[in-house]
Predict the 3D structure of the following.
Amino acid sequence: MSAPVGDLVGHAAAGADLGTLSEPPGVSSVWDADPALGRVVLSVEQIAKRVAELGERITADYADRPPLLVGVLKGAFIFLADLARQIRLPLELDFMAVSSYGRATKTSGVVRILKDLDIDLTGRHVLIVEDILDSGLTLSYLRKSLLARGPESLAVCSLLVKRSVEPRPDLEVAYVGFHIEPEFVVGYGLDVAERYRNLPDVRVYRAGEPE
Ligand code: IMP
Ligand code: MG
């Protein structure tokens, strides 16, 4: 009879779909279906590979002087978590939270410290871990603030640097994950109005700028 055969074919098709769903974790179609998200700028695989490379370099560079990683919240939290596990040294971690006033997708240049460090920086080898440099104003402010606290050394690691950033001595970034075009991006910790931080890759945010 034709009906059971049809059913079997249906089951086979369903099985194939389940097979697709159980493939290694990629990026869920929930994100693909979101009209506010544009093209993937950096894939999960590209990010993982680069973070491992940065971890190797930092491990070599700081072998005789274990670093204090200063994560800049909130954007750097995922990058920091992955990077710290790729550095094979007895490092320490602390966090700062900063915020710039103004519209959500444009930096105003006025930086506020929302949460300060717990650890004293005197004599320490400090590595600031940032999510992204756009105008560079946040980093410029942070460097000045942390340098005044007497660290033995101070360097910066930023996952992303937009090509809009003009090279300046106070914006020297020793470790750069990727240079990207000056577009607004979200994911892997980066947000727009607190959303998309848990997007596993980095994508262009293409909805109009929120007020
Ligand atoms: P800057 O002070 O202009 O360099 O901006 C730095 C901060 O603005 C970053 O640490 C982010 O929190 C935020 N930001 C800048 N560009 C982007 C972006 O494309 N996506 C998400 N956040 C961004
Ligand atoms: Mg930031």
